[in-house]
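Every protein is a chain of amino acids, and every chain bends into a shape of its own. The protein below has been through that process, and both of its lines are reproduced in full.
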Amino acid sequence: MKSLPAPVRLSRVTLILAVLILSGQSAVPAIAQATRTSGESVADRWDASPLYLTANEMLIATGKPSLVMMSRGSTHVPVWSLSGGTVGQSVAGIVNGLPHDCVAVKVEIVVTSTDVQTSPDLEDVYRVHLSQLVEDAPFTARYALGKPVRTPLSAGPLHSRTIVLESYYEVVPNAPLTVRIQREPGLPGDTFTRPTGLAVVKVTPLNAPPEAHVVQDVSGYNSWPMTQAIGEKLVCTYSRGSKHSIGEDARAVYARTSTDGGKTWTAETVVANTPGYGEVTVGKGLDSTGAMLLWVRRVGKQRMHDLYRTTDGVTFTRIASPELAVPPMQITDVFAVPEVGLIALWFAGNYSDEAVHSWGVMTSSDDGATWTQTPVESGLMKADWPTEPAAVYLGDGKILAVARTESGPAQFQLVSTDNGVTWTRKQTNIGDIMASTPSLILDAETGLLSNYYYERGRGVLRRRVVDPDVVFDNPLHWPASEAVTIGSPITWDSGNVNATVIGAAHYVSFYSGEAPDTAVMVLEIPEPTAEDELIRRKHE
């Protein structure tokens, strides 16, 4: 077994100074930013001092990477050279000194390149392997394989980049943390064939994220919630059956309301319980009068989608059951677009490996009474199929949607510039996912877009916040995620996020538990502010 040197706790100012000198930038503004403190809640997530591993404090784990000196003038920075053509190269080190009160860590790397071909038109891919040396357990017991992280290169050679490889890995305090960094030139997203230099690994201890409120946890498989604000009232609808199944007759749709941010809830009311059918909530929204609309998928001797309307979250009236040329697997959230009316995206297919999958748009000009269906793409393979999309209208005819992937490495982004008539589909860099249904909130005052999604198998509800102008034409530019709450890590017994907003707070629902009993939860979280984003970017 190799004996790895202990890390040295470096000052943040020293790290920033080194990488900026290497790239030829002035270090004075960065030092001022690095030493500034903030009492805001976002900053509290990083109140513990980061720990660092420099290149000299890591050893070869796999393959034959090289420890070299990257130089410019009188500045010399040791880096691990990781090949852009040879797969299987990685280096590792051990981080000691995790605070006794931390519950998780964030892992970042600082990389650079001296190659003249360095350009933001190219990307590279990295991942992290994490485990801990815990007493009375194998050192493999807490192993976690990070998802591949794909990012564009810097503007040119000698520039440095900080890349978040893992935003939330749960740890045992005081136990040594093993970190292995691997470049993945064999993956399709790594288009830069030249070596890159790994200079620093940064490990930031994290406090526990806030806990979610319980909406419903009676015996049974409470799941697949859809949450909508009607004025100041929070309405959470959900489905309950006996297992993870959409078609069982025992499965019906229910609703509860809250006026105190999800802390307490009214008695449960029945929305839909049709004999011989299993019914599941699949989409929500508002009509032009501010009433809530709810799509319910009804599965039995036939598959239908019913649209319900409510003004109080208690009494629901079915207003439409459209007969559609392409029977959808699901119709998703409803949103308004001027000059069009209401829009909902849909997808159809059977999850097979055949080219039978499709998606498209539904529009209504009469507040949901009637709908027109338009396919956008048909005959798709499963790997190219965007499912369970969430969309927001940005203005000037622009719509941005994010969709789940059933087999690919990252969520899809769907954009339109003509009010939803034509669309472009591209893959994003949002890869910390597993069957992760997105939910989008566009904040009216700040213009910031929040993408909430649940990483199944890890039990982490994540959020990415961005100015939509940054990613509309550049879907690989989504910033790193943050963990906003934790749920069950059991893959199919948790997940399916759906969010809404009241005032300056977001309310994010999901389900979590272990079959046959799961609970519907809702997280109350402040909307992100421009200042929050500046603080977050400084910590990256």
